[in-house]
Amino acid sequence: MSFDEMAGQEAARQVRESYRALAQWLEESPPGLLEARSRQAEFFFRRLGITFSLYGEANASERLIPFDIIPRILSAREWLLLEAGLVQRVSALNLFLSDIYGPQECIRAGIIPADIVLTNPYFRPEMSGRPPPQNIWVHIAGVDLVRTGEDAFYVLEDNARTPSGVSYMLENREMMMRLFPDLFSEYPVRPVDTYTDMLLQTLKDSAPSGAKREPCVVVLTPGPYNSAYYEHSFLADKLGVELVEGSDLYVDDAQVFMRTTEGPCKVDVIYRRVDDDFLDPLTFNPDSALGVPGLMLAYQAGHVTLANAVGTGVADDKAVYTYMPEIIRFFTGEEPILHNVPTWRCREPEALKEVLSRLDELVVKEVGGSGGYGMLVGPAATRAEIEAFRRKLMADPAAFIAQPTLQLSTAPTLCGSGLAGRHVDLRPFVLTGPNGVQVTPGGLTRVALKEGSLVVNSSQGGGTKDTWVLDT
């Protein structure tokens, strides 16, 4: 039985302290109020144009991302644990990336096999021996967490390339404050709207040193046809900076400039939402029309900051993920505060044998996969799907990891027949600048809206909730 965020373990099934005011409010609310407020939220979100593409369906058009109006609540004590673990983990990720593109001491020490790093499709040899400005690799991280018990939080994966979803975190909070001001009066909820101020300051602080003026920051988007374009434009607006496409920028004398009606403007920091392969057609994909020719020349010369740095995709890799406990110990000298989900590395013969014998019980993922694609959820798969995946796994074992099917915690969710428990995860957002690591108090709670489903990804039909972190 899953741990219930509101009611706790099955043995107790009494409302947990952090949810008591919410439970009472729900009990006293008149019939139909929640459904009416949910319709209001949908109306407002539709007017704002908050959409996402559900790829893989016959009609993959832009549609509204589902929003559930029942908040997910974390106590101050729970958040202190999560915050400490996130700071530790992202600090270790930055140290790891600095090392693999530098002295590679972790490889020489046998902490992680060389081939997992050096043959990784996201490893960029162009960055070897070329630290980014301020030596910060992951300015913005989104770490996916799941919960299985009272204090049992696990890291499901690290997102260190271009983590998405922060706009939904901010819009969800604004919507909840608009619809339920009376409920906020019952709770000391920590704000999340300081995120954009924190982000802007982090980006400015990470500008190349030596600038004699206020750093110029831009958000680089692939364009309006990208599924996350709403978030790109939202962030640029909230940061008060320009939203640009590759054609808006050019490189001259190893410096990046933005075309404006008043003439060229030197750019110091690019918050890029474009993948490495498309950033610079002179260095990576020559057919890319999304990037800026010569951008890597300016970057390698230290004249512009890219957030996140080129080559951070290695830290997203699920095979690297399995070594994170050892990486944390090696670089910080500390025991991990947040643990990984137990994981089999299918590249190891004994692990592969175990996984093949239990495919109907396990979740098997591609090491470079994301968004819930390219994975097998054994308990929910048909025999034909399991056998097809078995053949893929045997053909290329190193491309997969496997994990037990965790009973993710459930949170009360408004469904067609009223409130019901649905499985959730949590993506907090972590910012790293020269002055340290900061975690926004909350994050994006994603919820699997189908009964029994463990797939929370928005790209596959999951929804989102507001996440409340209590101040006391």
Q: What this model shows, in words?
A:
- With 472 residues, the chain is α+β, with helices and mostly antiparallel strands.
- The chain folds into two domains: 17-208 and 304-339 and 406-469, no CATH class; 343-404, Dna Ligase, domain 1, CATH 3.30.1490.270.
- Helix content is 30%, strand content 22%.
- It has 14 helices and 23 strands.
- It has a five-stranded mixed β-sheet.
- Helix 3 (76-100) crosses helix 12.
- The longest helix is centred in the first third of the chain and has 25 residues, at 76-100.
- The radius of gyration is 22 Å and the shape is globular.
- Mean pLDDT is 92; it is low at 54-60.
Short description:
The protein is of the alpha+beta class.
Number of E strands: 23
Give the low-pLDDT segments.
54-60
Q: Let me know the largest β-sheet.
A: 5 strands, mixed
What's the arrangement of strands in the largest beta sheet? 3-23-22-19-18
**What fraction strand?**
15-25%
Number of domains: 2
Query: What is the 3D shape?
Result: globular
Mean pLDDT: 92
Q: Roughly how many Å apart are the termini?
A: 29 Å
Name its key features.
472 residues; alpha+beta; Dna Ligase, domain 1; 5-stranded mixed sheet; 30% helix; ATP-dep_Glu-Cys_Ligase-2; UCP005522; CP_ATPgrasp_2
What secondary-structure arrangement, pairings included, does this model have?
Layout: H1 20-28, H2 33-48, E1 51-53, E2 62-64, E3 67-74, H3 76-100, H4 105-108, H5 114-118, E4 140-147, E5 153-159, H6 166-179, H7 181-184, H8 195-205, E6 217-220, H9 229-239, E7 242-244, E8 249-252, E9 255-258, E10 265-266, E11 269-272, H10 295-300, E12 305-307, H11 318-321, H12 324-332, E13 339-340, E14 344-345, H13 349-357, E15 362-366, E16 375-377, H14 383-395, E17 400-404, E18 410-415, E19 418-427, E20 429-433, E21 436-439, E22 444-447, E23 463-469
Parallel strand pairs: 3-23, 5-13, 6-7, 6-11, 11-12
Antiparallel strand pairs: 1-2, 4-5, 4-20, 8-9, 9-10, 14-17, 15-16, 15-17, 18-19, 19-22, 20-21, 22-23
Helix pairs in contact: 3-12
